Amino acid sequence: MKTRLEQDIKSLANPDRREVLMRFFKTGKGQYGEGDRFLGVKVPQVRALVRRHAESCSFADIERFPEPLRKSYLIRPATDGATS
């Protein structure tokens, strides 16, 4: 079952930006970012969503997210109560 936060983040996905990020971070086979994946969502967009959902989304919810959302360095601290 998808949480509202997960649905909202995925709704902001930008395939064009995703491709740019994948090239920039060298995610191809044998490159230093091999295996990294992106949605193409900008940092301010993620932060705004996390603030909106901070009360209703727990760390356990984030752990159930599929890749690439689960490893988001922006979402995890906020769900631990470390929002700023």
Topology (elements, then pairings):
Layout lengths: L3 H8 L3 H10 L18 H11 L5 H5 L11 H5 L5
Helix pairs in contact: 1-3
In a nutshell, what does this entry contain?
This protein is mainly alpha-helical and 84 residues long. Helix content is 46%, strand content 0%.
If you had to describe this structure to a student in words, what would you say it looks like?
- The protein is mostly helical and 84 residues long.
- The chain has one domain (4-78).
- Helices cover 46% and strands 0% of the residues.
- It has 5 helices and no strands.
How many separate helices?
5
Helix amount, in percent? 40-55%
Biggest β-sheet strands, sense, barrel: none
Overall number of strands: 0
How much strand? under 5%
Order of helices and strands: HHHHH
First-residue to last-residue Cα separation: 28 Å
* Low confidence ranges: none
User: Which structural category fits the helices and strands?
Assistant: mainly alpha
Mean pLDDT: 77
Number of domains: 1
Q: What is Rg? A: 13 Å
Query: What overall geometry do the principal axes of the alpha carbons give?
Result: elongated
